[in-house]
Structure formats: C-alpha cells, structure tokens
C-alpha cells in the first residue's frame, strides 16, 4: 500500500511479471506471446483481484501492452501512465516515415531470426543484457541507480526456473502478426506520458504524435534522462505520477 500523505490518498499497487519473465509462466508457442494474450493477462489479474478497473502504470513492453489494453478494454482503465513508450500506432507511423526511428529499431527486425538472438542474449555472461542498461547510446545515465548487484539480479531473473531470452524475444516475434494491429481510436481516459528526452531507442516525435489521439492526455519531459527514465530520475517520475493521480 503506497500512501500519499499530502492528500491522504492510498493505492494498492500490484507489480506484474509478465508471461515469459522471472517466475511467471513461460508457454512455449510463439503465438502465446501475442498482444491479445498479454492484454488478456492484465484483464485476468484485475478481475482476479476483485476489481472492475485499475490505474495502469507501465514502461517499454509493459507500455505497449498498457496502450493496447486501453484500446481493447477502455472500461477497465481509470487512468493510464506510460513511461518512454509511444502509442503503437504512432510508433508504427514514425518507423515508416523516419530514418532516425527506423535505424533505432534495427533490433526488432533482428529478433525475427530463429535461435540466433537467444544465443547472443545468453553469451558472454549475458553481455547483451548488460549493454541494454550500460551502453553509451542506450544505457542508464544515473549509474548510481543501477549497480552491479542490480545487474546480477536481472541476470538471475533470466537464468532461473527455466527462464530464457527466448520468451521475451517472442514478444517481438508477434509484432508483425495480425494480432498486433493498433487501433487508431481516441482514448478517453486521463493519460500521462512521461518521457526521458535522451532515449536511445525511441524518438520523442512518436510520443508527441500519441498525444493527438488522447482526449485527456498530457506529457512530462525529463531532460537528459534515458529510455530507463524511472531509473535515471525516480524522484521526478514519482512526483509526476503522484500529481497526476491526485488530480481529479
């Protein structure tokens, strides 16, 4: 239970390990990681906990699922907060129209290969995973907020209980399937986009394009924060989230 003393508002917070990660189920078929399956998981969690709707807070692939959950189950989303992830439709248009975004998205096409991405992900003590968090272009800027112990915890989560890079990579292998078609509809729920402006994977223009499809949307920019905005500037991210939740 997270308390906000200034307004005496409390929220029940539930953090989900999506399928394929850590101790969550890891079905083998690639199609088990289609967006319809992932959004169905979110629906099931909300309903199993006894709620009809929830405030959804998400980042990166969790954000893709959150956007499409809001499109498919708008009645179940009270508010939506997405950190450094644009709406899928806006992202797709940006990839098709911008060399900058197309170049940054090379890995999405690379992940369509069989077996090679998994082998590289596990090679050299998961060096590829370390690069996601510590490379010059993509890595976390605030190094004190991502220690060697943090990195080892991530490696442990990927190596335990039969976990493999195969399952998270299967998310990408469903991108071009017919199930991952973004709906260009106006979302009505209050929505906040938080964006680290030094994102090495995503152009901010896709986030700005996303705002055009939101009836009640806003964006908070955090200068020089990376794609991992919640690691770089946790205090600012928490401040923006708290203000948004307290604003009725």
TrEMBL record:
It comes from Caenorhabditis tropicalis. InterPro entries: AB_hydrolase_1, AB_hydrolase_fold, Epox_hydrolase-like. The keyword Acetylation does not apply. The keyword Nuclease does not apply. GO terms for molecular function: epoxide hydrolase activity. PANTHER family: EPOXIDE HYDROLASE. Residues 8-234 form the AB hydrolase-1 domain. It comes from the Eukaryota. Keywords: Hydrolase. Belongs to the AB hydrolase superfamily. Epoxide hydrolase family. This is AB hydrolase-1 domain-containing protein.
């Amino acid at each position: 239970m997270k308390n906000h003393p200034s307004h005496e508002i409390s929220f029940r917070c539930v953090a989900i390990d999506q399928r394929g990660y850590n101790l969550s189920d890891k079905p083998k078929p690639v199609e088990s990681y289609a967006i319809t399956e992932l959004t169905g998981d979110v629906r099931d969690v909300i309903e199993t906990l006894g709620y009809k709707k929830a405030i959804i807070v998400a980042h990166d692939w969790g954000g893709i699922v959150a956007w499409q959950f809001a499109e498919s189950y708008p009645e179940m989303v009270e508010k939506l907060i997405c950190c450094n992830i644009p709406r899928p439709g806006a992202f797709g248009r940006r990839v098709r129209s911008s060399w900058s975004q197309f170049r940054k998205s090379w890995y999405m096409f690379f992940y369509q290969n069989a077996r090679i991405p998994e082998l590289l992900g596990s090679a050299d003590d998961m060096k590829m995973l370390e690069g996601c968090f510590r490379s010059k272009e993509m890595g976390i800027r605030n190094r004190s907020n991502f220690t060697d112990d943090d990195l080892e915890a991530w490696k442990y989560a990927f190596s335990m209980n039969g976990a493999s890079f195969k399952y998270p990579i299967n998310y990408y292998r469903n991108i071009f399937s017919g199930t991952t078609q973004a709906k260009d509809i106006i979302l009505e729920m209050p929505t906040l986009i938080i964006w680290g402006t030094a994102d090495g994977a995503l152009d901010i223009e896709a986030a700005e394009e996303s705002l055009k499809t939101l009836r009640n949307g806003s964006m908070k920019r955090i200068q020089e924060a990376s794609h991992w905005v919640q690691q770089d500037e946790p205090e600012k991210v928490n401040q923006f989230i708290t203000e948004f939740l307290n604003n009725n």
